[in-house]
Amino acid sequence: MKLKTKLQVSAALALILFVAATNVFVYVVYENDSWSSEVSRVSNQAEATAEQLSAAIEDGSGLDGIIQANLPGNGMVRIINYEEETIHTSTREPRFSEFPPHFTNAQASRTLVTEDDERFVFTYKPLIWENGNVVTLEVSEHLQGMEENMEVLRYILVAASFIVLIPAVLGGWVLGAIILRPINGLISTMKNIQEKGNLKPIKSKRRSRDELQQLIGAFNEMVERLEREFDKQDQFVSDASHELRTPLTVIDGYATMLKRWGKTKPEVLDEAIEAITEEGARMKHLAEQLLLLVKDGEYLQLDPEHFHLDAVLQKAARAMETATQRQIHFQVSQAPTVYADVEKVKQVLYIILDNALKYSDKAIDVSVWQENRAAYVSITDYGAGIPEADQARIFDRFYRINKARSRGDGGTGLGLSIAAKLMEAQGGRIKLDSKVGAYTTFTIEIPIGEGAEMK
């Protein structure tokens, strides 16, 4: 069953139950009120009849005239002695005599509803009769007018129910169409995406901020994010293909050269083997970096431990200083102990230090300190700097500031992407601050972690 049909059926059923409950309530209240009114009216009539009969008995005047004058149109007046025998009966409907007499020395009233839904009221009033004995004056009446009124009320309530339900059902249909319109648009857009692969947001003119509008907004945000991810994926595949094409071309060229002259020219053999080995190593390194980037950060294998960040940083800086014969100034404001994967932190430090040494001929400044529950490492080089337009993309895969940079003076463009991914996996981050022609500073933030204390 469609959601629209469910909404309509549910709304109709709820309305039917509400209208039925309301009708029952109105009917019961009106019936009880009518009973009270009729009982009170017949009781008053019995009271008046009893007073007139008492006065007539004292005066010794005739009683039949008083009884006939107070006889209800469809009712009965009768006198009952203490033995529950009828002394006198006056009625226009003989069937009233079928009701058994009832003696009581107290004023009382009762109602009766027959199987045919006929309503009767019986009122009893004690009275001193002509012989001085206490008798019961019974005044009873068939409430035909009330029956007619209740029947009319039933017709009115049923008719009113249909009159209310018809526009309510139509309104539920219209309301369901209005509510489901954005959902139908969402379904149509999803089918279009599935069939044609055409990512597009849902256009909505709704100004309210209800749940449907929030659903549309969440879907549009998801579509925009998917578009960005697909664009990045396409760019990644394109860049990866481009990066792999060059070493494969070199390997293919040298393999062809080996096939032609490798057996007769030793110098060609040595050159080809060296070139193929170098390009093979480059491809292996690139493949390892690509595999690392493909992994989601939360699934990276982490082996956290407590270690002194300044010692690890100093060791990495001295190693790079020895390898490049470049000067690195090392400064420790505080010596924090962190809880992280030491090997992955080393990898990040080597990537940032390598970039700093690669793109600057001057000395490198390195410092470490702690603020609150995080440790910080800053690595500053004084080279050409990074233009502001490139800073937002510096951590993108395969992104190079100088697009014309050769393979000899530039890397694959994956190092900073890997460094950022490794830090995000451990709850850290890398920030960049650079000024063209002045400096470039990468600041690495590493959470202290539970149980780690500054020493």
UniProtKB/TrEMBL annotation:
It comes from the Bacteria. This is histidine kinase. It is a multi-pass membrane protein. GO terms for molecular function: ATP binding; phosphorelay sensor kinase activity. GO terms for cellular component: plasma membrane. InterPro entries: HAMP_dom, HATPase_C_sf, HATPase_dom, His_kinase_dom, HisK_dim/P_dom, HisK_dim/P_sf, Sig_transdc_His_kin-like_C, TCS_sensor_his_kinase. Its EC number is 2.7.13.3. Keywords: ATP-binding, Cell membrane, Kinase, Membrane, Nucleotide-binding, Phosphoprotein, Transferase, Transmembrane, Transmembrane helix, Two-component regulatory system. Its main location: membrane. The keyword rRNA-binding does not apply. It catalyses: ATP + protein L-histidine = ADP + protein N-phospho-L-histidine. The chain crosses the membrane at residues 12-30, 155-180. The keyword Transmembrane helix applies. Residues 239-450 form the Histidine kinase domain.
